[in-house]
Amino acid sequence: MTERANLISEMNDRSREVFRRVVEGYLETGDPVGSRTLTRTMSEKVSAATIRNVMQDLEYLGLLDSPHVSAGRMPTQLGLRMFVDGLLEIGQVTEDDREKIEATVSSGNRGDVGSVLDRIGSALSGLTHGASLVLAPKHEAPIKHIEFVSLAPDRALVVLVFADGHVENRVFTPPIGQTPSSLREAANFLNALAEGRTLAELRHVVEREIDARRQELDSLAAEMVESGFAHWEGEGTSYERLIVRGRANLLESSPEAEELQRIRELFDDLEKKRDIADFLEGAEEGEGVRIFIGSENKLFSLSGSSLVVSPYMNADRKIIGAVGVIGPTRLNYGRIVPIVDYTAQLVGRMLSGKT
């Protein structure tokens, strides 16, 4: 980031203004910006030829690109990054946006956190015309009871009842050949260990118990236990819930066939929850909003999209989740950044009982 900051400071006023106006024009329209267009908006009167020379210099630096020989210029990923870091003017959340976000949080049953976060995701998607991501906090209350229910040969349901009354139902793929007796044996094994322990604590206990008692357990029941926990907890990570809303917004904003395929690949990744740990870790690296452009985040590198994300915290100032917006790289960052930031703060206050 220091090198980018130095690059901005080394530009003269004219180069900086040309660069800023090209990026702002592109973010507004999605089209390359030509030199003749800039002659009408520059603060000083300069010729189109002079502006073209400046554009060529910026292109040489890797900040602008020309999609066609006769077309104007548009920012590269590096150019967008530099603009966001050094020239972006962040506005305030408008009163209208603020009221819509607050109304979403206050409506319905405040005690049902999952439902509130679902509504927040839908509201973010509607306000930003992008796709929203909400990474919900894991439920950390002690477990009261666990039950497995067979739905089909290749599907089973696990019912988690927590001491605070919260209930979660999750569908997962059981081991091949599971039987009603193996389901009962797995549930009995877990319930004997579960009481008074959180899901994360239970997982560690179960791993130790399985290692110590593997020979005593029916092998299929052991697989059932492991398969169930692999689904609840993720691959070596704490269980998180990812809520995605507004898929249609991204599909509508990318009419080109190649872009549509990239967006579909993005959502395939999200639905399979690949690299979700990286998503949260990226948000956890510091307070406040972070912006990932294109390939800066491998979760979105195939889509040519940007992610604006902010973590939210509980009453102990511990990061427990995140909210974000995905859109094309020409997002209206100046408007979306404060919306995401305000939403994250509001979610944190809600979960801390301060709203």
UniProtKB/TrEMBL annotation:
Task: Give the GO biological process terms.
Answer: negative regulation of DNA-templated transcription
Query: Which residues belong to any copy of the Heat-inducible transcription repressor HrcA C-terminal domain?
Result: 115-337
Chaperone listed as a keyword: no
Pfam families, from UniProt? HrcA
Q: Which InterPro entries match?
A: GAF-like_dom_sf, HrcA, HrcA_C, WH-like_DNA-bd_sf, WH_DNA-bd_sf, WHTH_transcript_rep_HrcA_IDD
A single Gene Ontology MF term assigned here is: DNA binding
Entry keyword annotation includes Transmembrane: no
Highest taxon above the source species: Bacteria
**What does it do?**
Negative regulator of class I heat shock genes (grpE-dnaK-dnaJ and groELS operons). Prevents heat-shock induction of these operons.
Q: What's the protein name?
A: Heat-inducible transcription repressor HrcA
Q: Which organism is it from?
A: Celeribacter indicus
